[in-house]
Amino acid sequence: MTNLKNQKLMLGLTTALALVAPAAFADEMPPETSLSGLDVELIGREDIYSYGSLDSYSEAPMLTALVDAGTLPPVGERLPAEPIVFASGAMVDGVGEYGGVFRHVIGGRPEGWNWMAGQHQGWGGINMAMQECLVRQGPRWQVRAEEQSGPLPNLARSWSFNDDNTELTINLMEGVRWSDGDPFDVEDVRFWYEDNVQDESVASRMPAGSFGDNATLEVIDDYTFKFVFTSPQSETIVENLAYIQGCPGPSHVLKDQHPTYNGDATYDSYTQSLPNDVTPPVVLGAWVPVVHRPDEIVIMRRNPYYFKVDESGQQLPYYNEMHFRLSTWGDRTAQAVAGSGDFSNMEDPGNYVEALRQSQSDDSPVAANFGPRVLAWRMVLNMDAAGAEGEDEAAMRTLFRETDFRLALSHALDRDAIGQALARGPFAYPYISGFATGSPYYDAASSDYQPFDQAGAMALLDGLDVIDTDGNGLRNMPGGGADLIIPVTVDNGANASTKQLEAMASQLEEIGVRLQMRGVDQTTADTVFTGGQFTAFFSRDNIILPTRESCRSWPSGPSCPHFNAGGERLDFEVEVADMLTAFQSTGDAAEQAKLARDMQRLVTENAYTIGTVQIPAALLVNKRIKNAHPGVPVFMYEWAEDSVIRERLWTAAEDQIDEVLPGQIAEY
Ligand code: BQZ
Question: Which domains, and CATH codes, for the chain?
Fold first, then answer.
């Protein structure tokens, strides 16, 4: 996989491709202006962290007091024999000082702490602060191209395939403990996979049967297991074991709540068994939620059993406390620019110009660096006609299965106008479907562009007998049916989404198609989308890798994508599904790039989703935060909250923010 950050290489590749590859489509993508700036020194995988034992370990002074009081075992007994050791060479400000608070502001709200059952904790980095996953993707942004051999290890320390790549043996770290001191071991992984992922009644982030074409798990010993596949796989499949899919939960807490082990439990009671108003949950992450004041704040305290250290033997993280102020996504950027928050992914172009203006001043608490375009917006049409409730919905979904219908909607869009409605300036670029241009798999020459063409759009609808038979200005369903009014669900807290949907609606109205916006809160939007409970759905998605939250955009499993969950696959979808399987089963980067180009061609020429625009994003981190490496992308292999490696961040004593709960740890 070419390295994401090496824009010069990418630019060279793209130029080379443009010179060599013939124009594949009548309408090629327009030229793109990149806003990404920084050149960053790329390093090796082992230059970030490795596993090993050190001569001695130390801990945050507040923990020593608890050890002296007999509340905690000594740090050497709380750490694994060979913890993860972060290399100082990759820490721009070196090993850190303990203490203080890292201040997040987020727009989401904790749904509950049972992440294995699909509950989120409010997004914006809170999920990743609590969860640790088998492998890790975020820090890969800084790994040089020739070492991009797959995900980084984490709880899974190493893995290997058998001769014909049909078995993947995984070796777990030994001696890791949950935040309540309970040992992490293979039973946690088995419970995650067999009783959450593979149990169709659990809404896990990895749908049943979607991993390795329904792989089975075999336990070998307390720290070793293997997946057995029905067909050969490759390193790529291991990417699925990263956040958000591959993060085991505490089996010693949850098994008793699961219907398979408790006859009085239901799947609903299981999902709700770790309610957001009961703290602290048991976690593996660097910080533990100890206070949740609804709509106000989640306060997290360091996890005394966290299994990572710096090269001097200091147990991580450095911050004793992490805050998640429960506000809005726009306020996250406003507070970062004002200096009252420490972090923001700038992703609402509506506030880009003002945020950039303020961040340019010398005394600004933050600096803004743009990356490539990784945030893309699209409307998906539910094509699962068989799963529709009622004749009208079934008829609408049947119409959505017509490629000419989707192409008509795509051609009806003036994407330049939508981009400018979002934010004046050079930010927006057309998005059709498939990979965003910031993906290493994006290829402009393989992208069929649907330019603004109202006449062409109307001709396509006429050809489908979708015409205005009653003269009221709205086209009717084929055969003189009902007016064509498409309900579209959208997160009403996502300004950039609602703005674009309004622009899209007014443009489609011009060709006689009405969108009926259904605004819901973020948690409902997430549930509606992943449950396929919508006619149409508008959202922002960052389609960079076909192995991350793949069910949101690709036919990557029996009930994927969410917008054709149970439906019969369209012909091109069958081809894309086969390409995805081939993509996961080859370790050959050139073969993967070709498969990705073919997937991009199919999903764009068939308007699999109805894209609007894509934008670059900029990461804002307060200047008092040390080790926030310059150039961390908002999203590449994962969101910046993972890529910036928060367990390595620290603030000098004189700049630390006072803790709200000094000296405290989670009490179970
Ligand atoms: C980043 C991210 C970290 C989810 C969420 C949110 C959910 C989606 C998506 C983003 C938020 C922030 O994105 O917008 O900048 O901090 O959390 O997880 O959009 O509604 O379901 O996929 O990641």
Answer: 49-324+638-655 (3.40.190.10), 373-615 (3.10.105.10)
